[in-house]
Design brief:
Shape: elongated
Strand content: 15-25%
Helix content: 40-55%
Number of strands: 10
Length: 239
């Protein structure tokens, strides 16, 4: 095989492996996990291992060597994949982390400070759940946040001077559709739906935004992909 095709295969096939792997990981990741350098290193290491195995299996196509199928070449191809990959990773990960951190911190600082603006103040919404007897009326402006738990959703709601929790059999996607008439209620991550009037502080990190809410102890994430929509929605509430 010519040198050109050897280079092409060693560039094209690893790119396909990385694309498929991260597409599958993204598809099957249901719960919220903060983005960290450690997790990125873990996934990249798995990809490099797969690339090393792919390079070993490719040897018969590239090299006319009777010893292609040996443990020596198996470990050699994996070693080479890690040596080359880690040299690139040592540059890319710190740069990517720094870039995302700086960008999200700056963007979060530009989110306007706001006072609660109660839209549809007297509105009440009947929430239809997967169990009809479990349906209930929700005053959207009393809602603080909703956290997804598989096919269930956990509601945190203001009730006089207290916060009550309700667990209902309804997915966050179904809930979002039913609350589409209330612009102050927004899905900020696949696992969270937030009343934007409850946001008291917005901070940025490499994974996106972190929201501080009234009467809610946990930080609520805003995915990087949702940041532009979040900024636009917050601006409209401040108008």
């Amino acid at each position: 095989m010519s040198y050109f095709w050897i280079c092409f295969l060693h560039a094209f096939l690893p790119a396909i492996i990385a694309f498929i792997y991260f597409s599958v990981v993204n598809f099957y990741t249901k719960s919220y996990n903060t983005w960290t350098v450690g997790k990125e290193l873990l996934h990249i290491s798995i990809v490099l291992l797969l690339i090393g195995i792919e390079n070993f299996l490719l040897r018969d196509l590239i090299y006319d060597n009777p010893n292609n199928w040996s443990f020596r070449y198996f470990f050699e191809e994996i070693r080479n994949a890690f040596l080359v990959g880690m040299l690139i990773v040592m540059i890319i990960i710190p740069f990517n982390y720094s870039l995302l951190l700086h960008k999200n911190i700056k963007s979060a600082q530009e989110v306007k400070e706001k006072s609660p603006k109660f839209l549809n103040e007297s509105a009440v919404k009947l929430i239809h759940t997967q169990v009809k007897s479990d349906e209930f009326e929700l005053y959207p402006n009393d809602l603080i946040v909703v956290r997804s738990d598989g096919n269930y959703s956990e509601f945190f709601i203001h009730s006089k001077d207290d916060v009550i929790k309700l667990l209902k059999r309804i997915s966050l996607k179904e809930l979002e559709q039913q609350l589409s008439d209330f612009p102050q209620l927004m899905k900020t991550h696949r696992g969270w739906l937030v009343n934007l009037n409850s946001v008291t502080q917005t901070t940025g990190n490499a994974g996106g935004y972190q929201l501080t809410l009234t009467d809610f102890a946990e930080k609520v994430p805003v995915s990087r992909s949702i940041i532009p929509q979040f900024n636009e929605r917050m601006s409209s509430l401040n108008a």
